[in-house]
Amino acid sequence: MTMRPFVIAAAAALLASTAVFAQQKQTVPAGKADAVIKAAFPTAPEQFLPRLTQDDTMKQCSASHNNPTKTVADEIQKREKATIEYPADGQFLGDWKKGEALAQSGYGLRFTDYPANRPNGGNCYACHQISKKEVSYGTLGPSLYQYGKLRNFAEADVKATYEKIYNSHSALPCSNMPRFGANKVLTIDQIKDAVALLMSPDSPVNKD
Length: 208
Known about the structure:
single chain, mainly alpha, Cytochrome Bc1 Complex, Chain D, domain 2, 2 domains, 42% helix
């Protein structure tokens, strides 16, 4: 057998075995996954441990592979929207400069960040393009460049942006975005600063 037919035969055998394996139903004993996760974090700080337990929304999203039925999606949105706490002063725009610093900071909620010695960051650039001048950003989330400009800086969109940042699941059930306010990752004032970064006409986000 020449080398070429041998390679083709080997590849065919590999694909066949992969197909058979894929057809086999893979099951995990109840509780085994949780045990593996906990075993992987033996030195987790006490404050970290609650994050290993899913709440009702995460359970529903996991069960549906992040694609819930409309009935479940509506249930999630209703429950998560009820968690939103609005600014006492009724103002949704903070300081966009502080919002930019917040977007650049990935500090908070890591093992090495306990005990915390400074405010948590939003780590927004890990998932989004925001400012035109920033060349390093993630693409898990949509681009937010010119976010406010594209929405004509509408007051309704300012409030909606606050709600999305406070609890993304209130806008998109099973969103990959953290529930920054509901899970106390960011304070209300920090969320207002993030809103200003996106919705202020003076923000670099909305400059050409």
